[in-house]
Amino acid sequence: MLRALPNMLGLFRILATPLLMWLILVGQPETYRWAVVLFLSMAVSDMLDGAIARRLDAVSPLGIFLDTISDKISVVGVLLPMIERDLLSGWVVLVIIMREFVVSGLRSFAAAEGQIIAAGIWGKQKHVITVVALVWRLLAAGVRPDLATPAGETTLYGFMVSLWPIPMTMAVVWTVFSAADYVWKAWPLLCQKWRPVPSQASDE
Hints:
204 residues, Four Helix Bundle (Hemerythrin (Met), subunit A), 2 domains, globular
């Protein structure tokens, strides 16, 4: 049972995504804050499952598959309802989702050719920065009007969360450069396979 814990954590992120989407779609300050709690719990589980799997010597193809798709599903599960609630611009979401398609396609293509494209520093940092940016934006959406001072001035907390465009800009930059890093690493293989070599049919 313990050796199945990493897979269960990956499955938890997938099953929790609809609830996460619902909390954001409700669009109330309280539900935004609950969405932050749930999303952070999912992020922590993402950090733990790989470490637990290695510690228990329970790394498996199923675990790798669940870890990979659960990360993408959970992030998309945050992005889409944020468009619906007008918390993010559609082009920001498009850039982040397009990057996932590009990277997944390149890695699958390279794997079919017997090569592995390792994640670079941009890719490793991208997910963390994206999670921070999304949490920051949800916290800003969850600020209650009664948190203002009696004079109507913004509190320090309100000011801090209003700075969410800064981490969100960083998330977009890291998204673009991490995608470019994958394309750069795959470029020689892409050029090599650009013109498919015809199979040598027998004349006999």
